[in-house]
Specification:
Elements: H1 4-8, E1 23-26, E2 51-54, H2 70-88, H3 94-105, E3 115-116, H4 120-127, H5 133-140, E4 150-151, H6 153-169, H7 178-184, H8 189-192, E5 195-199, E6 207-211, H9 212-226, H10 244-248, H11 253-262, H12 280-296, H13 306-310, H14 314-330, H15 351-355, H16 359-373, H17 391-400, H18 415-428, H19 437-442, H20 445-458, H21 468-480, H22 485-497, H23 507-510, H24 515-524, H25 542-558, H26 568-572, H27 576-598, H28 607-621, H29 640-649, H30 665-682, H31 690-694, H32 698-712
Protein name: Fimbrin
């Protein structure tokens, strides 16, 4: 056996090298005498070594020969990596793999030697600059990564191997798979144009498509809305012509900012996890905030979870982004903000009927109002076929701002050229957004709806009301139910979270026929609604509506709801207090059922049980808030108690430096906003507003505590 020191140094103490040595096997005695571990200089005694074998009796660790010889250790590890990766990816040459490893190790990796997923495209392009973003991003989906947001060395090399295999095989096809066509109802190559087909690794027979024009315009919207943001500005602009949008949206930051752009102050951004490197857990927390905040502003997020966002599922992300953008565009299409919308009522139409109209229908009314005012004979009934030739758009723009928008585009015969001239008019008034000549001529309904909404938001051009009688009717209807607005809003959002159809926009109007409430009832108490007895062929005559609402009242009595003085006709008439009473009891029953199903004993949970649970959590949290006796306790207004509940559920989730003393309503509101956003971060679905906490609305605070209790259990 050769002495280890003698192996490295010759008798003169000079460094010995073995340039051809490929394999080294070290032996030792069963009971070796204790001796100091040798230390050697940072040189490379075995530059070609690729295999090290250590006998079980060897007295030192398997790297003792190389202590101080880091270059040899790295070289040995590199050669072992090259051998291993060559076997896994035979299409790659060893010298190529060495380049890939060197490039990867020189990147900004996390503590676990992983590269942030949204940096992978840039890394591959360092090696192969000709590769396109979508080519790399699409192939990455085929790689089975061990961490959702990071790619490790083996996965990085596999990605490049797959790209080269695809190049060699030349299997690319410009036509979608039959399954994708069937799934999306695409039956011709023409209909496929402008769409990207997305396969599924989990189910090879399923596929989704995304509209490339919508992806492009939504990316442009995000670049416009969020450019310069302190937290994410460095990640913008997003390239609208690639799939980068979906990679950037994975960590929840861009989506959270977009929600606040569309519905300001929905998310208290102090709860967001920010930074260039987020852990998977931090990403999940951010996406919890996104999902639960999207619900709170009226988005339908059924069957969308935080993991779907983290995985960058394009069709789900694109749908969610559109909903958030649309909510922002529709926010001002409200007769309370624009009383002059009263002018859009048809002759003989009741104001109550006008208020039932969804925002897109009001936009069509507004569009046609201006077409009529311009003396134009045509009208629009949709945002697709009726606008493809750009004639109606040209007349609308000239009516809104005649000094800057002429009707000259009407003289152009080519549709694409006419659309471009029309959009140049729009550009003169700062409204060239959401559409291109292509999407106008193709009649994309979402993008054209967005364009018209933007025109309304910037140039409504409706004369203010002057007639006293008009004001009187409007004021009477708008302010009659004002005191119930917040509660009605929360209940409408809750109903929508149950995926009822149709979507509830105005609670008192949209539940009049009983169908929405019967759907909710059947979801909470499955099998209790005999649908053969329900009138479903809308629109329903009043007596048919009352038959439905009477059935609802009877079913509610069977569940021991408190319905003193409530009849079906009260719901059909939209009597606010009575509608709120029955919807509240449905919502409470939903919470109680959820808690009972999660408890070990399965018994019904009472308000007192929820108060006791919350007090116990606060007592164990080390918080300073005193216990409460009921959800109407005025001490709840400060927000301190609710923050203590949250901190008791997850110690450290509340940053004490961000909690205000609550000496003013503004400070109390900030605490309430903070509490709501933390609850959503934990995964709770919360529908109340900060004002509900500050004003201590017992029903709404019960829903808050009930959601947290369900989450904890």
């Amino acid at each position: 056996m050769i002495d280890v020191c003698g192996l490295i140094r010759d008798s003169g103490g000079n460094m010995a090298t073995y340039p051809r040595l490929l394999k080294l096997q070290l032996y030792g005695e069963s009971n070796p005498p204790l001796s100091p571990r040798p230390v050697f200089p940072d040189l490379v005694p075995f530059p070609s070594l690729s295999n090290l074998i250590v006998d079980t009796h060897y007295p030192f660790g398997d790297d003792v020969v190389f202590r101080g010889n880091k270059a040899t250790l790295k070289r040995l590890a590199l050669k072992q990596d090259i051998q291993r990766l060559s076997k896994k990816n035979p299409i790659l040459k060893p010298w190529d793999i060495e380049t890939f490893i060197s490039t990867f190790n020189g990147l900004d990796l996390d503590a676990n030697r992983g590269l942030l997923r949204r940096k992978v495209v840039e890394a591959v392009q360092r090696i192969e600059p000709e590769r396109q973003y979508d080519e790399i991003s699409g192939m990455l989906k085929e790689v089975d990564v061990s961490r959702t947001d990071h790619v490790e060395l083996d996965e990085f090399v596999e990605l490049i191997a797959r790209l080269r295999t695809a190049d060699k095989a030349k299997l690319g096809s410009s036509k979608p798979a039959a399954a994708a066509k069937a799934f999306e109802g695409i039956t011709s190559d023409k209909a496929y144009t402008g769409r990207t087909v997305l396969g599924s690794r989990q189910n090879a027979s399923s596929a989704h498509t995304i509209n490339e024009d919508e992806r492009e315009e939504f990316a442009n919207h995000i670049n416009f809305a969020l450019g310069g943001d302190a937290d994410i500005g460095y990640r913008l602009p997003i390239d609208p012509h690639t799939m980068q949008l979906f990679d950037e949206a994975r960590d929840g930051l861009i989506l959270s900012k977009l929600i606040n752009y569309s519905a300001p102050e929905t998310i208290d951004e102090r709860v967001l996890n920010r930074g260039r490197k987020l852990s998977p857990f931090q990403v999940t927390e951010n996406n919890n905030v996104v999902i639960n905040s999207a619900k709170a502003i009226g988005c339908s997020v059924v069957n969308i979870g935080s993991q779907d966002l983290a995985e960058g599922r394009e069709h789900l992300l694109l749908g969610l982004i559109w909903q958030v953008i649309k909510i922002g565009l529709f926010a001002n299409i409200d007769i309370k903000l624009h009383p002059e919308l009263y002018r859009l009522l048809d002759e003989g139409e009741a104001l109550e009927d006008f208020l039932k109209l969804p925002a897109d229908a009001i936009l069509l009314r507004w569009f046609n109002y201006h077409l009529a005012a311009a003396g134009w004979s045509r009208r629009v009934s949709n945002f697709s076929g009726d606008i493809k030739d750009s004639e109606n758009y040209t007349v609308l723009l000239s009516q809104l701002v005649p000094a800057q928008c002429s009707r000259d585009p009407l003289r152009e015969q080519d549709l694409a050229s006419r659309a471009e001239l029309m959009l140049q008019n729009a550009d003169r008034i700062g409204c060239r957004r959401y559409v291109s000549p292509k999407t106008v001529v193709n009649g994309n309904p979402k993008l054209n709806l967005a364009f018209v909404a933007h025109l309304f938001n910037t140039h409504p051009c409706l004369a203010p009301l002057e007639d006293t009688s008009e004001h009187a009717e409007l004021d009477d209807l708008l302010f009659r139910n004002q005191e119930y607005d917040r509660e009605a809003r929360a209940f409408a959002l809750w109903l929508n979270s149950l995926n009822v159809d149709p979507f509830v926009n105005y609670l008192f109007e949209d539940v009049k026929d009983g169908l929405v409430l019967l759907q909710a009832f059947d979801k909470i108490f499955p099998g209790t609604v005999v649908w053969k007895r329900v009138n479903k062929n809308v629109p329903l005559m009043r007596f048919k509506q009352i038959e439905n609402t009477n059935l609802l009242v009877d079913l509610s009595k069977d569940q021991r709801f408190s319905l003193v003085g409530i009849q079906g006709a009260d719901i059909t008439d939209g009597t606010p207090t009575l509608v709120l009473a029955i919807v509240w009891q449905l919502m409470r029953a939903n919470i109680i059922q959820t808690l009972a199903s999660l408890s070990a004993h399965g018994r019904e949970v009472t308000d007192r049980d929820m108060v006791a649970w919350a007090n116990k959590i606060v007592a164990g949290s080390g918080g300073r808030a005193p216990p409460i006796r009921a959800f109407g306790d005025q001490s709840l207004a400060s927000g301190h108690y609710l923050l203590d509940v949250l901190n008791g559920m997850k110690p450290g989730i509340v940053d004490p430096s961000l909690v205000a003393a609550a000496h003013s309503d503004e400070e109390r509101k900030r605490n309430a906003q903070y509490a709501i956003s933390i609850a959503r971060k934990l995964g709770a679905t919360i529908f109340l507003l900060p004002e509900d906490i500050v004003e201590v609305k017992p029903k709404m605070i019960l829903t808050f505590i009930g959601s947290l209790m369900a989450l904890q259990q």
